[in-house]
Amino acid sequence: MRPRTGVWLVGARGSVATTAVAGCAALAAGLRAPTGMVTEMPPFADCGLPPLASLVFGGHDTASCPLPKRAEALAAGGVLPPRLPGAVHAELAAADAAIRPGGPLPGDGRSDEELIAAYTADLTDFVREHGLARAIVVNVASTEAAPEPDDDRLPPSSRYAAAALRAGCPYINFTPSTGLHHPRLREAASVSGLPYAGRDGKTGQTLLRSVLAPMFLQRALDVRAWSGTNLLGGGDGASLADPGAAAAKNEGKARVLADTLGEVPDGGLHIDNVPALGDWKTAWDHVAFDGFLGSRMVLQTIWQGCDSALAAPLVLDLARLTAAAHTAGRAGPLPDLGFFFKDPDPGSSSSLPDQWRALLGFADALRERA
Amino acid sequence: MRPRTGVWLVGARGSVATTAVAGCAALAAGLRAPTGMVTEMPPFADCGLPPLASLVFGGHDTASCPLPKRAEALAAGGVLPPRLPGAVHAELAAADAAIRPGGPLPGDGRSDEELIAAYTADLTDFVREHGLARAIVVNVASTEAAPEPDDDRLPPSSRYAAAALRAGCPYINFTPSTGLHHPRLREAASVSGLPYAGRDGKTGQTLLRSVLAPMFLQRALDVRAWSGTNLLGGGDGASLADPGAAAAKNEGKARVLADTLGEVPDGGLHIDNVPALGDWKTAWDHVAFDGFLGSRMVLQTIWQGCDSALAAPLVLDLARLTAAAHTAGRAGPLPDLGFFFKDPDPGSSSSLPDQWRALLGFADALRERA
Amino acid sequence: MRPRTGVWLVGARGSVATTAVAGCAALAAGLRAPTGMVTEMPPFADCGLPPLASLVFGGHDTASCPLPKRAEALAAGGVLPPRLPGAVHAELAAADAAIRPGGPLPGDGRSDEELIAAYTADLTDFVREHGLARAIVVNVASTEAAPEPDDDRLPPSSRYAAAALRAGCPYINFTPSTGLHHPRLREAASVSGLPYAGRDGKTGQTLLRSVLAPMFLQRALDVRAWSGTNLLGGGDGASLADPGAAAAKNEGKARVLADTLGEVPDGGLHIDNVPALGDWKTAWDHVAFDGFLGSRMVLQTIWQGCDSALAAPLVLDLARLTAAAHTAGRAGPLPDLGFFFKDPDPGSSSSLPDQWRALLGFADALRERA
Amino acid sequence: MRPRTGVWLVGARGSVATTAVAGCAALAAGLRAPTGMVTEMPPFADCGLPPLASLVFGGHDTASCPLPKRAEALAAGGVLPPRLPGAVHAELAAADAAIRPGGPLPGDGRSDEELIAAYTADLTDFVREHGLARAIVVNVASTEAAPEPDDDRLPPSSRYAAAALRAGCPYINFTPSTGLHHPRLREAASVSGLPYAGRDGKTGQTLLRSVLAPMFLQRALDVRAWSGTNLLGGGDGASLADPGAAAAKNEGKARVLADTLGEVPDGGLHIDNVPALGDWKTAWDHVAFDGFLGSRMVLQTIWQGCDSALAAPLVLDLARLTAAAHTAGRAGPLPDLGFFFKDPDPGSSSSLPDQWRALLGFADALRERA
After folding, report:
1. Cβ contact (<8 Å) for A277 and D288?
2. ipTM, 2 decimals?
């Protein structure tokens, strides 16, 4: 029997994690078509990716609401189909049983070292108990504010990342939080021999920008201003209502314009918490550009999507691709996965078409080895 | 002295032609930056393209309004900068003097053969009188309805195309009209030894679709419906108010979706003549797509642009690239110029990123030879 | 015990009718707040309107799918809340039992007179069997094409309207179909002593236009072009894919602009059948207007709504208001209900604010009498 | 000869003032139709309003760029027609000659009292030199931040307002700045016997909201979130980039929703300075509302307008109406002019249709007296 692969979700009871676990079960059971999953498309066949049915889920979270109940709430909000939570109840309950408390909770006096040791033990136990070939750690927790330079504690995301390194687990940062990008983790990451990838999943407005900005460039059109507003509710909206978290988020979003256009055009970027919208996000972009002889033109885009439904399949894609990279002996950052990220590892283009070709090349390399 | 290159515009007194002539003069004189011109970007340096200052304009038209006056009207409508027509009056007048009557006008009893012979003589005279190295014929006339299969006359665009072949001129079809794509011209084209390219310049809605459709595909998102409405006035709006012309136009627009997505999704495409909008076009697109687990999402785009300002620099780009291809001995269709067209020659992708890379390859090949 | 009021729906198994029956039951049982119901707001208290709990539903339809099953389908499409059909199953089944076959079905050789007589008997039976004080006939069937002037048969909607007159039932036309507006029914309507109202419920794009057009007028802004596109699927989309039905629909929509602005501006109006959208409609409007010194400005609106959910409460409002008008002895057209219609009875303004004040006056008159 | 009326503009060299002066001259000379001017419509005929040709302009400003030059800059940015500044050069120069320095400039040590006295003298001189029947003071200067409660100096706008009172001039506040709304001016205003009106001209997004919010209310639709983003450049964009000024602006904008809907829905409001947009503003609004049985629907509006072109005719309207009110002996606030303001005087509705009827009543009262 083929060995199974663990997917350890930091933020395991959030919307993205719940959707990923429920969706993986639905796809593995043939209940739904694999819409939105990149690695189920033909170019990724025969690449040695772990099958969806072989994935085993666990994770850390400070919340206690069980996954089956979270899934019901997501179905009520239209994120999951109405009857799906019932159909995959067993798989949700199994994943829920493998969730360990994150931290620190209020009043928790543990040091960074104590927390990292506890997380590492959780990961080691997970791999051993389920007899896993390996486990991939994926950060899907709420966005943190960027850490203060003189803070002597690691930010939470970096503590989980440190535990991944210590437990020998490849690591994926699907959020703009610090994770492995902390100066005090640099050395450990580089000698770990593990593959890792990030940062900040590209699901909506930035995805659009990564195809539109190259278009303007290639047509020699002069982008004068690019302004954007995001409206969203749900947990993501609430956490991004914190100005520090929003700033961390926006930094990644701006990168695609700066990298592609060579300079940042006029215009700001807002993320508004609108509780009434729930998990559904609306992103409006307004691009003022000049054409031939200075004629002023405008492109506007309105994207209405469900962030969890956009993110969850990419989380599964990344876990599978990184697992295969680990099997293949890859170590260090994986810029070829820049297709998935707003703020990819050095060496990646900011243009989606270029990123897509890099990803196909990555798949080809895996296939040759597989 | 470097030999000069002719650009012979079929529809030489239309908005696109007038903007191209005025803009070329303004750029050659250093009055404006080359915004919107692809071939003025670094990848096209040293490719042996004829300099803008070396281009000589002429053409056919059935209209009689002189170019300087047309340019004033375009400036009043905001298409050209207010003072530009005055600044390039001499160049407009020179081009106007090289325009010959198109046809047939009402009551004109000439046969196809007589018309083609007359056009050929006009082209030959143009080359000789100006001592040109070559002349490129570019069709920028109003869109025709598709011809009836049993019509024994050639459509007007095909008569001009036949004259280009006979006069030894490379040919570019910037409209969806038939041009060289007529069965009775196939043989002549294939033995002509001339390069040619087409069809239907890609300036707005289709340009967007050619980057957005690949994005949906690469992210495994299931496009369920793609609907569009175009509002425009001016001469283009009036000519597309003819259902036959609109049908010809829409066929090219649909191709990018069919080619990229593998099937044509639900949804129609309207082109409305709205005289009050003048030369400014608004295109609204509504894309309904399904994501993970069938969640329904929507992207809408609104493009507000000036068609003449978008088309004119591409006409100059195409004339320069085709002239260089002719110099280099290229013959037959040029699928590497698919970047510029809605309905490109066989062998071209429908995806803008792929077309961009093909165009860069074309430039590299020219540079090696130059 | 207060006498009950019948609501007889022509098209009783369609989306609007099903939503009205299910919603009325949900509101009467206190399961939902009366969002979207005009007559549940304070200005309509104490006007002698029949309570929601006193309404009894029946109707005609040529379709046979039972209402509880239709309601399940609407819940699957997001039109009704997931658990509502189960909660009001009894009321849906009761209404379904009171539905009689419409006609003519294919092969049905009955004359107009035979059909009208059969419908009249259905109505009379309905009133008698349920001991109703009165029954209001409401046309919510699919839109018909406008009848040919020389057709010697009545259009279907007019046969049902004739039966309403004959059975002594007030009549409401919520569609653009002919209904009572047929020359051969004029005399019967005028001597019937019955109140009636129409035509074509105003639920989305036209609702918006009826507040925006007066705004432009009052600000002396010069509307130059008003263009619109509607995308919708479901049964309504399919029936409006018929050009005749779409033309009938569009005539009412254009009236608000013509009446308010004094002339019809440039611009067309499309209704596209996009099956993938189901019962959800998207309407885009583009208004080009000139301001001070001729400066060109643009307003665009995008309305994303569920037509059935917008129409159903208005159907209940109209049935209640017309029942109260009947009780009060009103006869003939009710222009004071123009608030609800795209193409209201003569004597109504086309401006929503004016229509709102007329409606408040109507309520006041009812209250004084009540 | 009919006595002339002065219009004294605080901020006399800004875009709005320049457009008002140039436009008034163009209309008086018959060069342009009075599009955008409310008081040139039939309901305002025979109301005793001063004719446009009888208006004489002057004002205060701290800027020194002459009006003819400002007008040229506005024409270059598309705010004024290209040739208008030349055609009304004499009138612009005459108004420019009547502009007096505002203050305080940097290093200016004058006290509030000294400044007010100087402004009062300027006003008195203006009236005397031109032999005016009266002069109306209109604040069209850049928006100030709201004053600190413990600041012992008056904000600039209040100093100009105090001078208006002292010089016996009716006062209009077209901005959200404090103006007459300062506690230390309350007594002087109430005993002045002068009419005054304000605050903050309603030109775009708020105008729309004042017709859309009543529509939702009258249809019993439940507005859950109303979010907005404004993009603009020019002087207005720059001054609103100051958070204090933006806050002052937003307060008025929120009032229409709070007043109409009874509570402020979710959602924020941004004003972004985007220099590349110049004087052209784009406002996007996103309204999430619930309909029957809780179905979620969305309306989005995109308004692209030129603020100066929208504001200038209203400034002329207000000056004329307030002049007529002064002639008619009206004193105190004029809530009947709420039609023009975001944050109108107490006693005004927030609904545009109600404001329109109040304005018509105001005109009727003037006409009866005239």
Report:
1. yes
2. 0.95
